[in-house]
Amino acid sequence: MKQNFAFDNIGYEGSAENMPSLLPQTSTVTVNILGMTCQSCVQSIEGRISKVKGIVSIKISLEQSNAVIKYIQSEIGLQEICQEIGEMGFDANIAEGRTTASSVRSTSLGEALMKLRVEGMTCQSCVNIIEGKIGKLHGVLRIKVSLSNQEAVIAYQPYIIQPEDLKNHIDNLGYESTIKSKLAPLKLGMIDIERLQTTSTKKTPASLNNSNVEPVVGKMNSTTTMTLGVEGMHCKSCVKNIEGNISGLPGVRSIKVSLEHKNAVVQFNPNVITPVSLQQAIEALPPGNFKVSLPNGVEANNGELLSKAAFSSPQFRSTSSGDQLTSTSVLSIDGMTCGSCVQSIEGTMSQRKGVQHISVSLAERTGTIRYNSAVTNSEELRGAIEDMGFDASILTGTYITENVSESSHQGYMSDVQPKNSYLSSPKPPNVATTEKCFMQITGMTCASCVSNIERNLQKEDGIVSVLVALMAGKAEIKYKPESIQPLEIVQLIQNLGFNATVIEDHTATDGNAELIITGMTCASCVHNIESKLTRTNGIFYASVALATSKAHIQFDPEIIGPRDIIQIIEGIGFHASLAKRDPNAHNLDHKKEIKQWRKSFLCSLVFGIPVLILMIYMLIPDGQQHGTMVLEQNLIPGLSILNLLFFVLCTLVQFLGGWYFYVQAYKSLKHKTANMDVLIVLATTIAYIYSCVILVVAIAEKAEESPVTFFDTPPMLFVFISLGRWLEHIAKSKTSEALAKLMSLQATEATIVTLGPDHSVIREEQVAVELVQRGDIVKVVPGGKFPVDGKVIEGSSMADESLITGEAMPVTKKPGSTVIAGSINAHGSVLVNATHVGSDTTLAQIVKLVEEAQMSKAPIQQLADKFSGYFVPFIIIISTVTLLVWITIGFINFDVVQKYFPHQNKHLSKAEVILRFAFQTSITVLCIACPCSLGLATPTAVMVGTGVAAQNGILIKGGKPLEMAHKIKTVMFDKTGTITCGVPKVMRMLLLGDMAKLSLKKVLAIVGTAEASSEHPLGMAVTKYCKEELGTESLGYCTDFQAVPGCGISCKVRSVEAVLGQSEQSVNEQNAYLSSVSTISLGHSSSIMVSESDAAPLTYSVLIGNREWMRRNGLLISSDVNDAMTGHEMKGQTAILVAIDGALCGMIGIADTVKQEAALAVHTLQNMGIDVVLITGDNRKTAKAIATQVGIKKVFAEVLPSHKVAKVQELQNEGKKVAMVGDGVNDSPALAGADIGIAIGTGTDVAIEAADVVLIRNDLLDVVASIHLSKRTVRRIRINLVLALIYNLLGIPIAAGVFMPIGIVLQPWMGSAAMAASSVSVVLSSLQLKCYKKPGTERYEAKAQGHMKPLTPSQISVHIGMDDRRRDSPRPTAWDQISQVSLSSLTSNKLPGHGGFREEEGGKWSLLANDRDEEQYI
Prior knowledge:
It is built from 47 helices and 52 strands. It is of the alpha+beta class. The strands form 11 sheets. An 8-stranded mixed β-sheet has the order 38-51-50-49-39-47-48-52, sandwiched between helices. A 7-stranded mixed β-sheet has the order 41-42-44-45-46-40-43, sandwiched between helices.
């Protein structure tokens, strides 16, 4: 059967109208099916296949063993139909010659199928990722991936994409693929080339055959350039599709397609191919969406146009005014300050003769000008800009973009000028060609995600450099705009499985520096410095203030840094240094408030104590002599000594002690809310003013007795409440110390080195860490802190990164590895290239997270404040009603007023008496409803509650966490150091091979001695275990010790006999040890055991490490040993091998153990109706193993510090109150952001400072106890509020005079007594909390008896990073068979963004890691 491929389906002779339709709708095919036995087979096939996408109908004949299937070609291919049937257990193949014409047509359209074997898929999300990413590739029509068969079937267009490309794309996703079968690739058939040639010769314009033109055509070498408009392109792959296919056509010299300008510039030989042929060829390309527009007049007559083209060649061109020679120049323009400068330059320059277009950028301080070089030149333009008052300099050499004559300009057509045409011109210098963009990237979980993005983007054409910051979630990308655009880069990042968006406003990424400059004397010094700086390349803006001696400078950190700027200023003769940031500049510092409340409290106390004494003195009933007391005597009529003392003391308290209450109350009212402060201010002010007024009135009226005043109210209230506030702010201030502690983790100095040509260090200098610039080479010695984030360029070491990961295990660092500022370099000297400095470092990002978390934490509205919101308006209404009612009663029945208000002056009018009485009752209501007891209800309970908590080993910082804890609905636990002990411990020792050759005791002595020289946490754990088992502190001698980071150790050990004692171990002792130790035979590898003579040699050669270390040293690991290791690793343990004298003789299982009380605490919390979640930076396997042991069903693994905060906020947005329990620096942002942060007392200082609650005893049951105590305290506060309310509910009606008719009248001193009684009752009620007893472990255990059931792995949902989808593989897969290290940090070898993991010989970050570069495996 003859098949015409590629462009065969488009006849070039015909016009577009008579082109056949590109894709037929449906095809029918007959498929032979073997293996059908009965009608139910027929029904099952018909039922399943009819549901497949793209199948229109299916009819099966059991007798003929075939099926006639009608299908849509664009949806499904023949092979896929056969495969679908094959997957049901039948054999299917296409019947020869039974395919209808249209199906043949589908292959002629260039569709090919290939089958690949894909290894490394573990779950459905791997399938989705492959289908999603490969399905989006240009040229891929369909893809079907089978997880069970580990296969992928791809339908593709072979003239756009090749099988090898598809294989590479799948490999780049981190899987291993091999091509199983493929169709022969399609090539452009001879028929097509013949047809194209005949087409073009047929349409050779008559005018070209004219004898006059022939020599010209010869001279021109028959080459013409034309610009075609192309619509319908979406991305770079459309560009590549058109360029790739059209450049292969006969007669086409070159083609350049621009996605932005939607055009194609084609150089072609008009003798061979015509513009219309080109138009049809492009429009015929799949997917068939391209629409090509020819220049004006071309359609009418190709010949004319071409002859015009011929005569517009250099030989024939006349220099008429219609001709234009267009050039473009880029100028640097300094001195612009705002948008109006830009407009004035653009406005003035665009009017100049010869200037066609000008574009000025204020941010980049450049201007791009397109002009006619016959009329003007770049030097003239630069001069014109300088004449306007700006500094201008030419950045790029002039390059000519077009060379067109007027006539051909209309037709977008010109002949080629090889020397200066745009197409063949050399690229202008980099200044003009590279641009920078910034992306926000989400979904990154670890360093391998970063290297994955950086590595894959750098492979792309047009990308110059990529720098990704993990914690900030940002990427800085330099690219060539002619090759790639930011939105395409976003697409590339999304294809890798991350979400990305372009950050439009990236001015924030400019460097900012504030300098202190000394030595300036006048304005000319300022001008000198500013002009020198602004002329310096890389500095955008410089402003120097003479008065403050400060300079503010904005610069491009890629070109210049603060150190260079300081050198420039010092070069002019001034001294400059970086302005030190004030560490307390953030708003979290409570020192000011603490000072204010302390002042308020002390002032109230000093003047309040005498008031209290006077009150008690007043309350002493002294029969008839009460009125004759010394203090009751009047100094002048109406003013007693007592009232004068009260007035003086109260005035001082009211305005000195209470001033801050007034400030707070004003702020509250400004926001239209009434809190506790409003209530206190209202009550004290009214009591004070009312007392002053009645005293003045009494003096004015020369009353015989001094009236009873309420001067005692304000001092008592202010004393108690300011004390409460003062203590609360002291507790709050602790959180801001967390930031100071975080900052102290950073190195203060850095050693910068200058490297010679062969990486030799030429010189070193010590600088402050703030002066380190991007691109500097920093030397870090063993034991030193890494001062900045960067990449290792030389040397290898281990680094303690618990700062970020929370994991105790050191991380291997070798050339190419990323390092984190603040982490500690263990034992090798390394050179680091600084990539993130200053506020961009990971540590600075954590500080920022903690700051943001503390700032954005929703303020907890205390119960008393809530209460006051209702109470204040209620009291004011009651008071007003009382006033109005008594005025009304007075005017209706004056006798009532006279009866109960007998002391009025005879000279007063009736109205005056009524008003005075009414005011007195309404003010009495306000004063008796004085919130003294309300104000004390909360602070007293909180003070007692926090005291009781402290006695029980729980430090609670202030009242808010104590009031909040009872509302907690979700508790998030960190893993390392919180649920687990945080220290590796030997779980099991396994002897391999012959016990007689090497006894267990001897192995322990040898291994313990060898590991005693190791600084690695695993080595320390092994030594500790050996010493415990042997019951000794002294071990043998170790020589030739060598530690290889990421592999293991080797050494020689001697003198272990002294440890063992010369006598041989008895059989009984041996058996005792064996009870805890399993032995397995070494299988076939026993043949390499070195036989020992009875007299054991004194020196043993020891190797301890991972599989890779053993292989390097030529030791074979048998399958049963490998299985034993894998078994341990599946439980989240680290398995290491021991070889003595060249023979494998032991395996040690090490793990971080779970705390004893963890499972009980989790169970108790779940019983209280609280959700428990495990959130860790560790890998998923370890996290799952730990969760199984403690009974937590939801796990988030491989989580960054910023993700922890985000997860907390996510739950808070759902309306849940969240508690976070953690111990590390990496937990501190989440501890600060959670409703309650609970830190483990043995954790880091930073975590303890950031948390609201600290568990001193490192006991997880205290988490339960703190919630329990919170419930008790809140209950006590409520009881206090009720007591205060009852008193008010009884007192207010009496004060309002409701019970006057039955003779109950409130004398003012009774009011004072009742107030004192209510306050005392509240304090006594609070003191009852002292009786609280923390529930003991036995009580919790008794409750949990019989209810605590261990979980199975299938009950646990594991999520990776911020992803909410479950990531469990349904069955053990190849992934589970590979060695993996439990304690590897979160930066283990894994594929970001999908469930497939490929751990090679253990997580690369631990002692057991593979030392090969992680880059290979991602």
